[in-house]
Amino acid sequence: MLFVTNLEETIRKCASGDRKAQAAIYNHFSSKMYGVCLRYSKDAGEAEDNLHDGFIRVFTKISQFGFKGSFEGWMRRIMANTSLEKFRKNNQLYPVEDMLIFESIPYSEETLSAISAEDLMKMVQELPPRYRMVFNLFAIEGYSHQEIAKLMEINEGTSKSNLSRARVILQKKVMENFGIEEIRVIKTVC
Amino acid sequence: MLSEKNEIDQLFSRKLGQFDETPPASVWDGINKRLIYRSRLRSGLKAGSIAATIVLAALAGWWVNNPSGKPDIRVKQAAVQTDKNTIKEQSTNNLQLSVNDDKSASENPSKVNKIQTSNRSLQAFITANTPVIAGDDPVTNPDSRDQFVTLPDTKKPLNSQSAQADSAKTTLRILVTENNDYAASSVTEGKPTVSSTSKMISPDEATGVPAFHRNLKRNKRWSLKAEFAPVLSNRPQNNVQISELNSSDSRSSNVKINSENSYSAGILAGFKVSKRISVRSGVAYRNLRQSGQNNDDNYLKRQFEYAEVPVQASCKLAESRLGVSITGGFSAAYLIGNREVISVNDEQTSRGKTAGMQSLTYSGLLGLEIGYDITKHLTITVEPRLRHDLNSLSAFNSVNYKADHLEIATGLTYCFD
After folding, report:
1. What pTM was computed for the model?
2. Chain A: residue whose CA lies nearest to B21
3. Alpha carbon B84 to chain centroid, angstroms
4. Is the ipTM of this complex over 0.85?
């Protein structure tokens, strides 16, 4: 297995089409990028597809990387954009139903440590596609609603609404899965 | 404790922000195959571009060096006429003119056509009073019909050398080689006049006839073709879910995408590499359209525009005033336009671009071209042809749309002398 020893040199070799350098870049970053793709996808199959397309794009555009920022960050953005493009392409269905706003109940550290990343990943993947996209972009990647609206070609208001709904769904799932028996509904939104 | 308002955000961000997991090995296998495929496509594109460049450069070079289109006639060989009624060809690919003051010939011009000729040769006896147009015996030598010489009605001597000849019989011999080089010599009966070799003379000098008319189709090597073709394409396999098309609520409509009538147009430069084979290349514009409609009569329209460089070869199957050729080739197309519009309740809204379209696509062509000579230089052609996309129009793995297109290309071809 090939590994990256000198990232800059490996990137330059990749840009010139060096197959060994491409394999080295893949081996070095594939796990992290697969993690990104899993967050934006509904299941592992879709994530693998996005990872494939994302890496093809990375190798196609690697000559455009200007060595001004983090290469990993650049790759993450490409993976996220690849997933977003597929979302836009498929214009997938997302349910619109009455949503319940739950009272926020603080969690103990014990509860938090009991929640695994795999459990949370499953919850994110179960979100409706548009909620999943907005939640990932806002909560994890740190994009603003204005940026999300531009990326997803939606209104800022829609972005805020989607984020709110995503949070409610995730909150409910966390409560259901980690021992909080009674949930008090404080209001309903549509 | 997480007590902030966005505690859910923080929880997920902390646990999933740097989440990693090893992907299955099959992902790299797929990437590797795709990279190899792209590498081969790039090589193919380079080869196609080089071929197109060579063709266009050759055309430009010819145009700059020889804009009038008149070939030079190079005097290469002398010949001596020894027999009064028979001319024997020394080359198997010669064209021979004989100027004859013999009265018997003028009285019976039909004999001229009975002159024995060798393969791929042409002979014409021209009397002082009766210009004669003669060609190969089409029965014995059907290939020679291309090598046809006509002489206008004139009593002028055929060249400067024959102008000096006052004997009973003068023969002008013009040899046409496979490379369309001309060799000319004149012979006066009893007093052989030997023309100098490697002397360049123009057609007018050679004949003494200003309007020396040559109808040698083989000389028409270069051509320029303009064509237009309506295009019928097969439909994409994938349906799309489009939320904006459902006017009553925000749920999506399942829309079946169909191909609409499209078109292409282009200009191609052609070069005849042999009697039957020719190659051509140029630039073309292709406009592909798709549309989809849901149950509420709301629709989606897509339009893709391509600039392409086709490289084609054609082989002539039948040659007459109505010619038939089989054509095949390869084309590289670059996406220059991508538009998507939705219409809900007759209100049209732009959706921007269809995502994930390949910027470069390749296709193979196979067609049957039927051409009709309107004039000596101008041919109208109709060419039904099939085009198959060699790579998917979409860059997404999940969308494999290698379209098949039926094109009926109508064109006008101008052949240069």
Report:
1. 0.44
2. A31
3. 47
4. no
